[in-house]
Amino acid sequence: MENQRVRSARVTIHDVAAAAGVSISTASKALNNTGRMGDDTRERVKRVATEIGFRPNALAKGLLSNRSFTIGLLTNDTYGRFTLPVMAGITEALVDHGVSVFLCTIEDDPALGKVHVDAMLDKSVDGIIASGKRIDRRLPVDLSNLPVPVVYAFTEGTPGSVTFCADDFQGATLAVEWLMGLGRRRIAHITGPESFVSVRERAKAYLSLVGDQLPVLYGTWSEAWGHEAVAKIWNTSGPKPDAIFCGNDQIARAVVDALRERDVRVPRDVSVVGFDNWEIVAAQTRPPLTTVDMNLKALGREAGLTVLALTEGRAVEPGIRTLPCELVVRQSCGGNPDH
Amino acid sequence: MENQRVRSARVTIHDVAAAAGVSISTASKALNNTGRMGDDTRERVKRVATEIGFRPNALAKGLLSNRSFTIGLLTNDTYGRFTLPVMAGITEALVDHGVSVFLCTIEDDPALGKVHVDAMLDKSVDGIIASGKRIDRRLPVDLSNLPVPVVYAFTEGTPGSVTFCADDFQGATLAVEWLMGLGRRRIAHITGPESFVSVRERAKAYLSLVGDQLPVLYGTWSEAWGHEAVAKIWNTSGPKPDAIFCGNDQIARAVVDALRERDVRVPRDVSVVGFDNWEIVAAQTRPPLTTVDMNLKALGREAGLTVLALTEGRAVEPGIRTLPCELVVRQSCGGNPDH
DNA sequence: CTGAAAGCGCTTACAG
DNA sequence: CTGAAAGCGCTTACAG
């Protein structure tokens, strides 16, 4: 029964050696391209190995090399808004190197965090990537002094660590310059809580470009706040903005909706830019949002490649690595997408 | 240097045995509560082990037992809408058993799927959970005849497998009965593509309760379709519905928006129910959506416990296991939440 | 150019 | 009641 053969014992290097008529050591060396032997022997072993479907047991390899070809991804971003793109990037970068990733969501529970970290360590992960939902908060677990390298992505790292994050200042600059290039001259900024560094960075970029003709409106990350802010502006007398740079897509969506309800046309009367490029929000807004994409997948790729380097003992410069954002042009600003 | 000690050799069972003054075999047996020995010896070994921070190497254990305390989660739901809650449930159920989970997103690429499955097998996963975004489509990878148990969650399984999914019929019944209990008598149904079984199941429940006084409106899973459907109904002469049961939250959100734009009040004039309880959509709608929750986390928990059972050789009845949905009452229907 | 032996960290018969 | 030995599947000095 083909089935039973598959189900029962998996084929080991013993089987390969026997089938190729060589010793186990020779088989091992042939398959790993190490040692010295006749090209014909090496080729024959390799051919036989694939023929009988040999796949080396990663557990055994790991026991020897102390590398499990496994890394852990720790996050407190239950929702997955930030973690999933990061995760996709990590996986994409590491699959070619044969490394798989453990994902653990730990909410804000330190005890749960410790349990998961210990589980990872027990399984000899080659490294850990810590990820979160904002760059100025730590995960609720201590990741210093671990016996494996740790890199941080979209969460605050310990001093001396490698941390990846998006360039909020540059992203915001992209957005505001786009509005200015479209001829907009009265640009408002409706954003999230001032306690977030991202918020402050984005506001700083905004202020450095447009000056303080209009006060930055800090609030929460909700649609409710977007509506409230628009009401605040439009219920006040005086000239209205011809563009609004929003701190995230949810706010932007609400702003677009609120404007429509006031018969202000987007983008004809007012251009609106968002931040995040959260597909479910940005693409479903009417009109769809032009918004800043933080390139989280690229960020994940870099983080993955970096733990790998660290694992392999290559030198990596510590510090905060900032990756550029990109503007995704849809229809909420008008303007020519090919501009 | 404390640091160096941590960074260098991890403590092994050798160290425990030496520190406790027993042989390695005795140490092993003491720690695993096997074998026979004096209670004092056992206790002493255990105490010493925790004192010097011994944690057994899972790779070595796995090599012996052929169990890696690791399972793989395979999904083509890149977005994570369905997979993340399922994943959360799996992790929650398995963390107490010391098993960690590999997450792999494979889009719709069969080659990539095979690569990841092979990687999992190489790492001796104890089992695999396949997950997706609809229950009537298979993942683009063959999971039959694998040397490890496979269970399916929110994706179509092979014949004879164990598959978990939400009870669409019951969920839809919950929604429609809620509307009827509120005194609604003309209930419309705006939903997704008829090609989805979920859509057909939900429609079947709807029809069995309200009859065919109104045609079911099949469309796409987008907000655009929600707007279009409302226009279709309200631009036609004749009596209007006093309630709308929507196939998902995105449609429901659009329906609520469209109604507001026509000055139809929700929930006063029309009650609206959604499906999915997708927080980002449901909670941000004005008013927030009453919607059906598929309990994906519970589904994940069941799936996790089931692979575990299979792994341990316990008997599991094959077939499709349907888990009940729940109605989450917010404000889009009116009615008393404590009802 | 090829193979026998030791060992990675653990567990499990088997002796004593 | 306790320990020496073999072995899980592999790799890597070391002999020949």
UniProtKB/TrEMBL annotation, chains A, B:
Question: Would the keyword Transmembrane helix turn up in this protein's UniProt record?
Answer: no
GO: which molecular function terms?
A: DNA binding
Q: Is the keyword Metal-binding assigned to this protein? A: no
- Alphabetical keyword list: DNA-binding, Repressor, Transcription, Transcription regulation
Q: Which PROSITE patterns match?
A: HTH_LACI_1, HTH_LACI_2
Family annotation (Pfam families): LacI (PF00356), Peripla_BP_3 (PF13377)
Among SMART domains, the record links this protein to: HTH_LACI (SM00354)
Per the database record, which ranges form the HTH lacI-type domain?
11-65
Name used for this protein in its record:
LacI family DNA-binding transcriptional regulator
Q: What is the lineage of its organism?
A: Bacteria, Pseudomonadati, Pseudomonadota, Alphaproteobacteria, Hyphomicrobiales
